[in-house]
Specification:
The chain is α+β, with helices and mostly antiparallel strands. The chain has a single domain, classed as Outer membrane efflux proteins (OEP). It is about 60% helix and about 10% strand. The protein is built from ten helices and four strands, in the order H-H-H-E-E-H-H-H-H-H-E-E-H-H. A four-stranded antiparallel sheet has the order 1-2-3-4, with helices on one face. The chain starts with 6 loop residues before the first helix and ends in a 12-residue tail after the last helix.
Length: about 475
């Protein structure tokens, strides 16, 4: 068995271990502090919303899409969260950051290596008649090293790696927010396109009926050939819109399939049947502008980047100072294997070492200035992210308010145009009006109905944009990665 070492090195090791808490109590570099941002006390667009007109606020911002009360939309979002390829790549980056943090943390402890070798050699003899000597050498032992983190450089590196992990986590959460909004936006657009396609087909049917009616009146000598040509032109124009809408419907289904990590045809059977455009039964809980700091993952990610950049200043400062390492080795060496475990075969070494780059042409100082500049950049990027988030919310608020006003005018326009079509048709049938009035009324009705369908979609997508701007959606993620 391996013999016991002398007590003197053991006492030295014990003394070093007892001193480690004192040696590693210092950490260079600035400590991270959360940036302070001054924002308004309330949203500008909130004042334009009448409290009595606002629907009840949705209770769960994590699953805001349930406010539309559409099981198919809910199913699509949940499946996208499970299968989206961009989201899975983000999860892989989280695992990478966690592993990198483990690598950085490993530098805080000692390293121990073991080795064993056998070597057989022959040396030549002396003179012409001398015989060579063949010998064996058996070696085995342990080598250990421990860099004492005297100035906290390693600990700052671990801190930076932890902030990098937070950055990866917040990036995934930000992707969750964008993904849920993109799925909802595409789904709403799909239902709107299908609604517009139904309107186009219905108007085409009415216009074709007018063509037949005009042809009969031409045969009876009541109208000229011009009325027939005008009716046919209007029907052909409406018919030309149908293939374009059909193509957009198919392309939107393809986009949803990709968001769910599938081939373009994955959702064709499920989404091709028409369904009504869902309308949200609740509005967004706006809260205060200051709440945006904790709600939006992109702001939290920008904060984590500042933390990492701040910690790396400490790493750069520690690199300018000496590094202390305690090294030791314990081994056995003998020419025969049976004698390798004797007391005389043992060897040991223990001692500290110092490494201090006294002259490096200013590389260390330049690296420190680089880390400071990077931290300044991240601080500015954080401020820009906050300002951009405030702008997104305000834009979504004003767009939602004004689009709803526009939609209400379109509702009135559709009702008026339907009355105009009925009156123009009746007067034309009675011979009291020319066919041009009927065509104009039909054209206006179709335009108003199509605009209303698009505006209804925009009202819903503006609400989605508001949910996204407020950072809704990421709290649904609870699983450890």
């Amino acid at each position: 068995m391996i013999p016991h070492l002398h007590r003197t090195p053991c006492r030295t090791c014990l003394a070093l271990c007892l001193c480690l808490p004192l040696l590693t109590s210092c950490m260079l570099g600035p400590d991270f502090q959360r940036p302070e941002t001054k924002v308004s006390s309330q949203w500008l667009g909130q004042a334009s919303i009448a409290p009595e007109a606002a629907p009840k606020a949705v209770q769960d911002m994590a699953q805001w899409w349930t406010a539309f009360n559409d099981p198919q939309l809910t199913s699509l979002v949940e499946r996208a969260i499970q299968a989206n390829l961009d989201l899975r790549m983000a999860e892989s980056r989280i695992r990478q950051a966690r592993a990198a943090m483990g690598i950085a943390g490993a530098d805080l402890g000692p390293t121990v290596d073991t080795s064993a070798s056998y070597r057989r050699s022959r040396t030549p003899g002396s003179g012409n008649s001398g015989e060579g000597v063949t010998s064996d050498l058996y070696k085995m032992g342990f080598d250990a090293g421990w860099e004492i983190d005297l100035f906290g450089g390693v600990r700052r590196g671990v801190e930076a790696a932890g902030a990098d992990l937070d950055t990866a986590v917040e990036s995934r959460r930000d992707l969750l927010v964008s993904l849920s909004a993109e799925v909802a936006g595409n789904y709403l657009n799909l239902r709107s396109l299908q609604q517009r396609l139904t309107l186009a087909r219905r108007n085409l049917s009415a216009q074709e009926h007018s063509v037949e009616l005009t042809r009969k009146r031409l045969s009876a000598g009541f109208v000229s050939r011009l009325d027939v040509v005008r009716a046919e032109a209007l029907a052909a124009t409406t018919a030309g819109q149908i293939p374009l809408l059909e193509a957009q419907v198919r392309q939107t289904i393809y986009s949803l399939s990709l968001l769910l990590g599938g081939e373009p045809s994955t959702l064709l059977a499920e989404l091709t049947p028409d369904a009504a455009l869902p309308v949200a039964l609740a509005t967004v809980p706006l809260g205060l502008p200051s709440d945006l700091i904790s709600q939006r993952p992109d702001i939290r990610r920008a904060e984590a980047k500042i933390h990492a950049a701040t910690a790396r200043i400490g790493v750069a400062r520690a690199d300018l100072l000496p590094k202390f390492t305690v090294t030791g080795s314990l081994g056995l060496q003998n020419s025969t294997f049976s004698s390798a475990f004797n007391q005389a075969s043992s060897a040991w070494l223990l001692g500290p070492s110092l490494n201090w780059p006294l002259f490096d042409m200013g590389r260390g100082r330049a690296n420190l200035e680089l880390k400071k500049a990077l931290q300044e950049e991240e601080l500015l990027a954080y401020e820009q992210t906050v300002l951009g988030a405030l702008r997104e919310v305000e834009n979504a608020l004003i767009a939602s308010t004004k689009e709803e006003e526009y939609r209400q005018t379109l509702v009135q326009a559709v009702a008026a145009n339907r009355t105009a079509v009925d009156l123009a048709t009746a007067l034309y049938a009675a011979g009291q009006n020319d066919f041009l009035a009927v065509l104009d009324a039909q054209r206006s009705l179709y335009g108003a109905e199509d605009a209303l369908a698009q505006s209804s979609r925009t009202v819903s997508t503006n609400l989605v944009a508001l949910f996204k701007a407020l950072g809704g959606g990421w709290l649904a993620e609870k699983a450890s990665l």
